[in-house]
Amino acid sequence: MDIVEYNEKQNENVSEKVAEQASQLLSFNKEYYNVKKELILYSQFPHISHKIYELKDHKYFGIVSCVAMYDNYLFVGNSSGIIRVFDVKTSKEMKPLIDDQVDRVKVTCITLTDDGAYLLSGYKKGQLILWDLQKYKMAKIIPDAHQGEVTNCKIFHVTDEGTVNIVSSEDAGKVKFIEVVRKNLFGGYNHHVYNLIDKRLKGTASIAVQRPSDLYPSGFCDHRSLVAFGAVNEVLISSMRPIESLFNLRKPKMIKENKVAYLDWGYGLTPKIRDRTLNILAVAWDNLIQLVYINEQPCKVTVELDGYYLMDHNEEINSIFFMGDSILVALVNQKEVKVLYTPKF
Fold first, then answer.
1. 55 and 125, same structural domain?
2. By C-alpha distance, which of 152, 166, 176, 159 is closest to 68?
3. Considering Cα of 330, then 332, then 335, then 337, what sign does the dihedral take?
4. Nearest to 96 by CA among 133, 71, 126, 150
5. Do 335 and 272 belong together in one domain?
6. How far apart are alpha carbons 140 and 17 in whole angstroms?
């Protein structure tokens, strides 16, 4: 693991003490840090890995296509259209998420609500399925969500009445807004599909939802459901309540063709603003990371660009996420992890 807490563009040296402190951040004392995610390695779960990859005669076997985790449960979507579920503490395989109404085609993406009540899955033929994990069954299938493969999907808000609000994308550039509404009298759900973006965001593969934090309440962000969409040529930040485009970031000219932006929201400091914690969107293109932040002032709110981090030309960022306040983790060249400190950009 490569711990980076300096700007590689300037070839600054890192003292052993600073490198050691950065390394310790990987274990994060949750009493002091606003921790969002944890690093998960397949090597941590050898028995589950064996079941997923080596037992090819298993009735639920398929090539792994997407993975998500909630609490102690690992959800693994595969090429057979099955979502396998494992208890990571015991390595026991639970009942899979599958239904006779679901076509046996590749599961392309999985996302869960923060409370683990719902799981949303996208499929190769354009369907979306909402699973009720409390009842452990399919709540609603949305067969008309997309014409082609679903590249990403997110649940950005669940109302007090139980309406589940969803955004999803396809490679052709269409982004959909979907409401799954709970029926009052007889149970079940209805759904409504709206075109949010028609063709503009071609190659959209990344969707990131800004999540409110009790530590950093925001009069603007907490009630707007901010969502960022990362496509081949641009990144778009939108408010979903109400629906309003807030910021557009074009791909820098130095970035190679067909490089999709990877995104994640978090909290922290930027190179210019170090006196208050901000809502930050990290945008990774190829070997470049840019920071976009929400600047809340008493009279107005602006979205601004502040800071960038450039890796070597032979390095490519494959994924990026905030692991804590001001702490970014980047997967590079599918094999190396770099831990970055945003104020040092």
1. yes
2. 152
3. negative
4. 133
5. yes
6. 53
Domain enclosing residue 227, as ranges? 1-32+205-345
Task: Report d(CA 153, CA 328) in Å as an integer.
Answer: 22
The pLDDT assigned to 95 comes to 95
- Nearest Cα neighbor of 180 from 222, 225, 131, 136 is 131
Counted residue by residue, the chain has a size of: 345
Q: How many separate domains does the chain show?
A: 2
What pLDDT does 40 receive? 63
pLDDT of residue 200: 85
- Tokens in use for 127? 């369907």
E strands along 297-333, which residues? 301-310, 317-324, 327-332
pLDDT at 187: 79
Sequence-distant (6+) residues with CB within 8 A of 326 are 267, 268, 269, 341, 342, 343
Within a 13 Å sphere around the CA of 62, how many CA atoms are in the beta-carbon half? 20
Q: Residue ranges of the chain with pLDDT lower than 70? A: 1-43
Instruction: Give the per-residue pLDDT at 278.
Output: 96
DSSP for 69-107 reads: EETTEEEEEETTS-EEEEETTTTEE---B--TTS-S--E
Q: Indicate if 55 and 164 belong to the same structural domain.
A: yes
Q: Give the domain-ending residue among 197, 229, 250.
A: 197
Say whether 272 sits in a helix, a strand or coil: coil
Looking at the structure, tell me whether residues 40 and 168 fall in a common domain. yes
Question: For position 140, which CATH number holds?
Answer: 2.130.10.10
Let me know: does 303 contact 245? Beta carbons within 8 Å.
no
Instruction: Check if the beta carbon of residue 139 is closer than 8 Å to that of residue 118.
Output: yes
Q: Are strands 336-341 and 2-3 parallel, antiparallel or unpaired?
A: parallel
d(CA 307, CA 318): 20
